[in-house]
User: Fold these one by one.
Assistant:
Number 1:
Amino acid sequence: MGATVAAAAIFLTGGTSVTAIAQAPERTEIATAGFPARGPATAPVTIVEFSDFECPFCGRYSRDTYAQIQREYVDTGKVRYVFRHLPLENLHPQAFGAAVAGECARAQGKFWEMHDRMFANQRALTPPGLIKSAEAIGLDAAAFQQCVAGDAAKKKVRQDIADAEALGSNATPAFFFGVEEKDGKVRVLQKIVGAKAFPVFKTALDTILSSPGLK
């Protein structure tokens, strides 16, 4: 989609919210093709989340807010939701391994099942805990362990980290709202940083969705 949207850009960081009536920076784009996603590709708005499976704030968002976004916006076809990794290795020693485990679950078609389980069990992100989670969601344990030990999944996670850094994003969870372009990227319109309550996300989404320029 190449819509021009004149929407209020809401930037929220930490525990403080700052609202500015302005368009997002021109041509800020994020790749979305080939990443874990929920919702139709034809949805008018895409959210890209950069997250860390060991981050307590990411866990709180996943448990308290994400289900409402999925129910009211993703399941109704209004939003496509894309997940990308940003493990903060200096703060969370198990985060990178958990991100790799997520990619290895995706290789077997069960990323979201692993996503939900890891966020529900953030104290079980050790290698033995991840294997237990893989088995619990029905993954082929041998293939999972081989994937975790290999380089392909690690390279994907490192690419996510590099892309987040290029966007100036170094905190989790971070959310970028935008519209899909024809080249498999999202043009960013708004950004939220932090595990904000559902009404904050609702305001941002409804503002974009109600814009007369959105197609």
Number 2:
Amino acid sequence: MTLDQLALLIGRTHRTARGLRDRWCNAGWTQSAKLAVNLPPFVWLTSRGSRVAQSPFRTWDANHGLASHIEAVTNVRLLLERELRLGSWECERLIAQDFHSRSEIRPHLPDAVLDGPQKVAIEVELTLKSRARLDAIIRDLGETYEHVWYFAAPRLVPTLKEIALLARWQNVRVHRYPAQAIEVAASAQIV
């Protein structure tokens, strides 16, 4: 997560989050770096921190190419799980553990599943994929989950809405990213 997201998560100032991050880094539990020019520094667990936190996941290697996507997924998580309290978050890494083999053919995995009164697949889309690829993803998710919520960069919203309208199950909602809490809350009432 980014340093700004850590501040939101702990409900403190940016300065307090920075101090906490520095203590964790000095203890060897986390690493921190600026991974993209337009984003704040990220903080992630080291193998030592993973053992202390008893994380079930292998440690993450900093990935500059995924930084914007990870920041966006975490922002959506903070909105849905923390601010709106719509359910508990199951990350893609947890969902992937249900598949025992990398060679096993599996449907597209969402970025997360929001587990509340109903299961909602969450997909964050910041970059354009081919129409055929988007159609296949929407089909896979629509057939697997009760509801699918896309959070997409504004330029992608029209294409995704068009594909969602043609989807067989009609269970896909497209939200603009960054999402507005009031819009998402209204959509959640409909679900």
Number 3:
Amino acid sequence: MILMASLIVPVYSTPAPAALAAVGPLGAAGPLDPATKFPFWYQDAAGLRLGYCFDPVFCFLGNQLPNPTQPPSVPNNFPTEMFYWDADASMPTNSGGQAFMRLGMEAAFLPGPGVVDGDQVTFGRIRFRLDNLQAGATYTITHPYGVDTFVAQNGGVRGINATTDVGCVPKAAGVACDVSLALGSRIGPFLTWDTFGTAVDAPPAGFIGNFAVPHRVTGSPLGTNVFRVDGPNVGGPGVNSIQTDLFQVSGQISAVNPGPVPPTPSVVQLTPASLTFGSVTRRTTSAAQRVTLTNTGTAVLTITSTAIGGANPGDFAIAARTCGATLAPAASCTVDVTFRPTARKTRSATLAIADNAAGSPHSVALTGTGL
């Protein structure tokens, strides 16, 4: 069931991809922890299984147990909400405002308040909160799980305030939560740090990120590992597009029924993470800019496709490439991209490379302005 806990409903949203695969533990009498009546874990389609995350530093700030020396239990030792996985991103908008996005897989108690046994619910959440927008104007939000378009309701605080929760919410009193309903949300596969599984700048052992440290991520099924907002003056007068690729990520790998967990021995590094072509006259082709792909893993990387997608794919083109079907460990190859705008405004797309490494497809954000 979908709960739209929002003041604004999107006028357009992309459909949800097939993202989450299972809830567990497997082989038990049911998927619930008898001490909490919550699932031990959720698993995405890539095989990444995330469980309880209570670390006071590496996990979402609200996840901490009241008594960290004791195991979790309901109602005696559990927070009012707990994210199996969370990815937050924020950036400034016009005149000191803020654009905030939360993507999460959450356990909570509804209708609340407080920790009440029998009120357990789980759901996937997508939330947007944006301030200081142009009232009545249309704004498009591109994020790892799709594209959503809204009409701002006012020019001040919370010009856009939208939350979509998919799971067993709302829940009838006395009826147990069907925790499998959360598998139907747009969340997934789970985003991880783009260095997850590497030897350099890796997250803490057993975690897919460190919530206290904003970081680039990988895992978007659409190749859009960014939070971008396009609309009139969103970044200030004449600035109609803002973007960040830094996320606060929370998630701990489950020790219950451990399954296949990324990464594979092939590990991809793309440099740079984005290309900006500046202002180019319409139907004029820019100079090419280069993306370098490096296999930093220990096994041969298999590349299945290299393509341009996103909002305006026809405005960008692959001019040349040295990347073939495979790439040896420690080797690099290149992809050159050009920009040929078809309209007088900001244009954007994504260079996506699909391969057999964790987090595929890997992506580079492309932007430019047509004159």
